[in-house]
Amino acid sequence: MKITALEEYGLRCMLQLAKAGDGAIVTAGQIAESEGLSTAYAEKLLRLLSRAGLAKSVRGVNGGYRLGHPVAEITLGDVFRALGEMPRSDKICSQYTGQHAACVRHGDCGVRPIWAHIVRYLSLVLDSITLTHLLESERYVEHWVPSVTDRAISSSGLKPLPMIEDSKKAV
Description:
With 171 residues, this protein is mainly alpha-helical. It is 57% helix and 5% strand. It is built from nine helices and two strands. The protein has a two-stranded antiparallel ribbon. Helix 1 packs across helix 2 and helix 2 packs across helix 3. It starts with a helix and ends with a helix.
């Protein structure tokens, strides 16, 4: 998965709003200064986040931006979907067709199930991590992330891929 500058800086804008607290108003200028961005770029990101309902614009002399939902309800997946595109296995396969209208492997592809497995896993993990989690210290998050990924796998029904010898016996 490629994380774009838009997604990275947009996430940082959301973390600035989250750090301020539910309902607190922060200006684009304050966020830009804290993150080393231009105010214009911070405004662009905040407009995109507002369009997705993750941030709310507050007008007036004391205006700025605030979170659109409680901090504990906004996930990393929400932010990525608002600013870019979460990977989709069907898109991966239709995107790389070479000079043909469809992939030459269409109909019998050993790669497509792998992409589907990875994309589902990634979505489950990103949708399990809230902004509240990301406000914690790096050390805390470092130790906490494996439990999130393990829970995402166990709740999803995803199974580890079998060894080749095992899968040949099953077929």
